[in-house]
Amino acid sequence: MANHPLLHLENVTLASRFNPSLVSDVSFQVHAGESIGLIGESGSGKSLTLRSILGLLPSGIEQTDGRIQLNGRGAMIFQDPIRALDPLYPVVKQLAEVVHYRQQVSRKASHVIALELLELLGLPDSLRQKDRYPHQLSGGQCQRIVIALALACKPDVLLCDEPTTALDVTVQRQILELIVRLQKELGYAMVFVTHNLAVTSSLCSRLYVMKEGRLVEEGETLPLLQNPQHPYTRMLIDSVLPLPELSELSEPNELKRGADA
Predict the structure, then answer these.
(1) One pLDDT digit (tens) per residue for the chain, 261 residues
(2) Rounded to two decimals, what is the model's pTM?
(3) Are 210 and 41 in contact (CB under 8 A)?
(4) Measuring CA to CA, which residue among 202, 232, 243, 196 is closest to residue 39?
């Protein structure tokens, strides 16, 4: 593992006019090829922490302390694929626009690259002949488009903000398997934000537990799940039914490849 992390957060604090400590003193590092999980209940500050990395904080919220260092390109997969896409813009055209501006290639080349990304993500060949609007695609297909938009930025660090929350269980599994497969092929590091401990236990080698805007526990995935030290972490583990067998977590980045949605 490289000595210098791709992403380094040091004592990051986020605040609004009405809450001076939405997120307090959050620190973690992510190295090349690594996957970490940021877990906790809704409202614990996970998504705000993730958004702060790319400067996408909501209006009225700002970073008041700490340092964020991103050594490379970052991109984000958002949790609601429908809201993340422009409903008035066909999806291939949206993707080609991102390729054009982020990769600085011609319009013709951006369309070709967009189609290559769609093929990589297992989207239907019919999109080559006829572009479609987001409402004409399934939830799983829209999420694949959102992933393609992130990959079009050629990220060194992929930020995943609960990307399977809006999907049914079967499609969730397929999207997670897809993200892991693409990480092996493309080599990006990943920060996966979720309230679902079962998801991150299969994806991530290291976990960071957030409660009320603060990190309360961190550690390698298997030891943390086997022997949690903080009562909040134990509560999260006890709330997962069923919890994956801990013996299956010895290789946390391995997922069996499943059929595409």
Answers:
(1) 447 899 999 999 999 999 988 999 999 999 999 999 999 998 999 999 999 999 999 999 999 999 999 999 999 998 888 888 999 999 999 999 999 999 999 999 999 999 999 998 889 889 989 999 999 999 889 999 999 999 999 999 999 998 887 778 888 888 888 898 999 999 999 999 988 787 888 889 999 999 999 999 999 999 999 999 999 999 988 886 554 454 444 455 444 444 344
(2) 0.86
(3) no
(4) 196
